[in-house]
């Protein structure tokens, strides 16, 4: 019998963790020296650690626990499904009710022209699906040379070889010889860091037109798709200027380039609408989904396809699929999550109540001497830290970076904000209350004071 339980002393759990568990995106030696914080439970928007401390989670786990922790009905649904049908696949002429029901539900929430979904186990493998899918789509349309996918520097689309290639993270490309052939990157629309003397609107247009230049350079007959997050999340919550997306849409339409909106973070309400694509008036051909689809209660992701894309793909067998595509328990959990999202009007509440209140408090934090820009859209935001507001200067990168210091101070004060370089970011559960926002604003101001 495995005797490792919540009741072991923290130091013992940490030692075992360091001895056997290699963590994602983590410097193992640094973590072992310090010891990982052991999370033992959670309820609502709060986590609990092995020392009994309560931690306010302003990141919804990894941008995913939108309905909050500790939902009984999800546990019930998962239990029932595991007893009834724990697993069966949807590969060879079979299907099952949870997959049918979730496909129907998800596509009913999607834009009208998108009525088909291909399931995956998360966002990375869904984006791998997209790479193969768009290339095969063009082959079926008699244009097999349309292969290249254009993405953006500093984008995050996942960690598999394909998804990390789509992503534009330099550090990831440096490990494992990425990107794969046929993926190229243009600049991100990060006005604060890269906009110089331009207005955000001028800069948005200029950055969008880099796509058109890249298409011209590659030849439109060689380009399959453009992929982007409506708001770049892991890159630092980069909210594009208002001119950016309309111009991107125009360019994709004009040059017959499929538009893939990676909705893994923005989807299911994060920006105050069902989709980030709604917030920015994007008309995608494909949407990547994961995270908020199940609020992180079970692993599931997928690609939602337009009717046009599906109709072409349906003319041939697609040699692609995952053992856990449409896993019955994950589908059942996702359905219950979406039921809660609708029944509790969580998205409407974000749009009408929480987001405006958070925007007000966030603007207040923007007045802090250390904050150059306080960006917010719905319930996702960033505080851009700067040594000099006027010049929009950046701090030196590295271990003593202010972002790291501020992030660690938050953690010590029992609330979680993440840092990306000089940016402190939040993405709280959609159930975040005004009271939670007050606490966050108060604690964040104190952390900023201490960081200076
Ligand atoms: N796409 C985006 C926009 C993401 O933020 C992420 C994860 O953070 C992914 C894809 C990858 O999803 P997963 O970690 O479920 O593979």
TrEMBL record:
Cofactor(s) essential for the protein: pyridoxal 5'-phosphate
Gene3D superfamilies to which the protein is assigned, alphabetical: Aspartate Aminotransferase, domain 1, Type I PLP-dependent aspartate aminotransferase-like (Major domain)
Alphabetically ordered keywords of this record: Aminotransferase, Pyridoxal phosphate, Transferase
GO molecular function, one term: transaminase activity
Source organism, top-level taxon: Bacteria
Pfam families associated with the record: Aminotran_3 (PF00202)
Transit peptide is among the record's keywords: no
Similarity-based family: Belongs to the class-III pyridoxal-phosphate-dependent aminotransferase family.
Name used for this protein in its record: Aspartate aminotransferase family protein
């Amino acid at each position: 019998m495995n005797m490792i339980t919540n009741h072991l002393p923290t130091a013992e759990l940490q030692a075992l963790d360091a001895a056997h568990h290699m963590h994602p995106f983590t410097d193992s030696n640094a973590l072992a020296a310090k010891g990982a914080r052991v999370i033992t439970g959670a309820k609502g928007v709060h986590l609990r650690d092995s020392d009994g401390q309560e931690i306010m989670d302003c990141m919804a786990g990894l941008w995913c626990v939108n309905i909050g922790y500790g939902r009984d009905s999800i546990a019930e649904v998962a239990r029932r499904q595991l007893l009834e049908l724990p697993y069966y696949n949807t590969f060879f002429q079979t299907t099952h009710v949870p997959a049918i029901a979730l496909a129907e539900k998800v596509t009913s929430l999607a834009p009208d022209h998108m009525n088909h979904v291909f399931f995956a186990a998360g966002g990375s493998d869904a984006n791998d699906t997209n790479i193969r899918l768009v290339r095969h789509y063009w082959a079926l349309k008699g244009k097999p040379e349309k292969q290249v996918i254009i993405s953006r520097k500093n984008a995050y689309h996942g960690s598999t070889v394909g998804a990390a290639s789509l992503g534009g993270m330099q550090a990831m490309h440096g490990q494992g010889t990425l990107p794969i052939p046929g993926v190229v990157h243009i600049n991100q629309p990060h006005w604060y860091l890269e906009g110089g003397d331009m207005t955000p609107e001028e800069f948005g247009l200029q950055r969008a037109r880099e796509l058109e230049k890249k298409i011209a350079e590659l030849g439109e007959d060689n380009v399959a798709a453009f992929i982007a997050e409506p708001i770049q999340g892991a890159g630092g919550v980069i909210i594009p200027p208002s001119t950016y997306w309309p111009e991107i849409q125009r360019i994709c339409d004009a040059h017959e380039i499929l538009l893939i909106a990676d909705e893994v973070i923005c989807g299911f309400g994060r920006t105050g609408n069902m989709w980030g694509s709604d917030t920015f008036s994007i008309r995608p051909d494909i949407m990547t989904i994961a995270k908020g689809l199940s609020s992180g209660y079970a692993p599931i992701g997928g690609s939602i396809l337009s009717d046009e894309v599906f109709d072409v793909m349906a003319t041939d067998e697609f040699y692609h699929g995952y053992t856990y595509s449409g896993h019955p328990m994950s589908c059942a959990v996702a359905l219950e999550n979406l039921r809660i999202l609708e029944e509790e009007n969580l998205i409407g509440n974000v749009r009408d109540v929480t987001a405006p209140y958070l925007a007000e408090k966030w603007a207040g934090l923007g007045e802090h001497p250390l904050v150059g820009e306080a960006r917010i859209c719905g319930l996702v935001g960033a505080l851009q830290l700067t040594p000099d507001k006027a010049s929009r200067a950046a701090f030196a990168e590295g271990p003593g970076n202010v972002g790291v210091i501020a992030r660690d101070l938050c953690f010590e004060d029992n609330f979680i904000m993440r840092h990306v370089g000089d940016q402190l970011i939040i993405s709280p559960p959609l159930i975040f209350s005004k009271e939670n926002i007050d606490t966050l604003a108060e604690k964040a101001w104190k952390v900023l004071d201490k960081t200076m």
